[in-house]
Amino acid sequence: MASSQSLPEASALPSTKKKRIVRIMLFFLSLGLIAGVVFAVKAGFIFNKISLGEDGIFKNIVKTLPGVKDQLKGEEEGRINVLLLGMRGENVPGGGLLADTIMVLSLHPKDMKKEGGDTARASLVSVPRDLYVKVPGREEQRKINAVYALGEERGKGGGIEDMRTIVGEVTGLDIPYAIVINFQGFTDLVNAIGGITVNLNESFSEGMQFREPHVCDANVYTVPTRPPQYEHKYYTRSEGTRYIAKSYLLCYNKDQEWGGGFELPGGANELDG
Known about the structure:
Layout: E1 2-5, H1 16-50, H2 57-63, E2 80-86, E3 101-108, E4 121-126, E5 132-134, E6 141-143, H3 147-154, H4 158-171, E7 177-181, H5 183-192, E8 196-200, E9 204-206, E10 214-215, E11 221-224, E12 230-236, E13 242-253, E14 262-264, E15 267-271
Parallel strand pairs: 2-7
Antiparallel strand pairs: 1-12, 2-3, 3-4, 5-6, 8-15, 9-14, 10-13, 11-13, 12-13
């Protein structure tokens, strides 16, 4: 059995800062998702105001969506539910496919036939990522943010289907649609809207982001940790005591992009993706 820890003379690398930057990035990711949702709701409202007929702009746009012929699922009932997921991204170390942002967007489209008029409305609810649930298709319980990654192990697209299933069970809603965005999508979104303004009451600095060590090899993980960190392989003696049989030096990926030395001054900061 192997575990990752420092030798007695070495101190462990700090982890609190890394967790803090993850929370900050996911916060901004959530803001980006909300901004997109608000835009979509307003756009739908405007489209409905432009044309009241069955062949209006909004209807024509809906018909161009893949798998949609005449209307969205739930539109006739007056409630369209969409699952919104945010994660780091595939092949990103440290849980790239963990869905750390989980939200359900519930849209009420404007009913043109309702007597006395109607207005488009939207509701947004966040699902706690640490909620323990029974994993679809498995006899085990895990945190809900791991369901996407486990579903992808079954096959491409399995993650989003399992998340729609489990979030539907948690909320009691039928969720026919889902949107997934990762850090690259977040970058593209920020650039698409021309950047964002981040206001800080005080300066912010981050020394390490998403750079996680692995056992050193000759090709990829070739940059030794400083101070040295080791992964120990333990064996158990016949009487039950354990001892370190071998220690492996840990290294960083020499090509992996990371955010060491990231700093922002206090005040207003104009940022792009």
